[in-house]
Amino acid sequence: MVTGSPASPSFRLAYVPGVTPGKWVRIWQERLPDVRLELIAVPAAEASDVLRAGDADAALVRLPVDRTVFSAIPLYTETTVVVVPKDHVVTAADEVSADDLADDVVLHPLDDVLDWEQPPGQPAFERPATTEDAVELVAAGIGLLVVPQSLARLHHRKDLTYRPLVDAPQSGVALAWPEDATTDLVEDFIGIVRGRTPNSTRGRTKPEPEPRPERKRTDQKAGGRKPTPGKTPRRGSGAARGSTGTQSTRRGKPRRRS
């Protein structure tokens, strides 16, 4: 009976819109070329479900996450921006505040990732289903949109631009994984996102090296004799003569007797 060969190892990484895992993927491929890294794009609201179901080993998610189920390492916090048509009045400023949007319709999509107490501006008649739909409505002149900067870049259009919104909530991005499934490959990816070198002692537990045999200390050179305390070494052909130790050892010719 012929048995199939064991499956090659792989690591499944989910990521939400706006997050770009490319730099970490490149490092992974350099350090672990024999372990295939599979990328899984998921909506932000579904990332936790993907991890719970075991469909990914880890995920780049937007905070918050359920810390009773998942371990998480915060990576960075994004700037929040308002997406507007290029001819909108707010483009005259380098940054804007919520008060500057008070008279504008501000779209609030159902997949919004910002934790608002009260969104700025005037509410739209209906909430768009997705951020992508909301961007299309901004381009049509229906309203404005407030999102993390990475989402503004992801859905970039030539007829739109954005400005930082200084007093809006921000979105944090983290690496998350099920707390009871911290595998060696998860530890490897943690080391990559934290910037550890390949030889770092953190991450996987490495076996301790065997201790080297203790070497005896000696104060004498190889082949020499250890001097006895309190005694002066005997002079020999190799001993220095004179107080300076620079006297030549060459002997002159014997004097002839008359």
Question: How would you portray this structure in words?
Answer:
With 258 residues, the chain is α/β, with parallel strands linked by helices. It is built from five helices and ten strands. The chain has a five-stranded mixed β-sheet with strand order 2-1-3-10-4. β1, α1 and β2 (36-41) form a beta-alpha-beta unit. The longest helix has 10 residues, at 22-31. The chain is elongated, with a radius of gyration of 36 Å. The model is unreliable at 236-249 (pLDDT under 50).
In short:
With 258 residues, the chain is of the alpha/beta class.
Shape: elongated
Number of helices: 5
Strand content: 15-25%
Strand order of the largest sheet: 2-1-3-10-4
Distance between the termini: 111 Å
- Low confidence ranges: 236-249
Oligomer: single chain
Secondary-structure element order, N to C: EHEHEEEEEHEHEEH
Name the structural class. alpha/beta
Round the Cα radius of gyration to an integer and report it. Answer: 36 Å
- How many β-strand stretches? 10
Helicity, as a percent range: 10-25%
Mean pLDDT: 84
What attributes does this structure have?
21% strand; 258 residues; 5 helices; alpha/beta
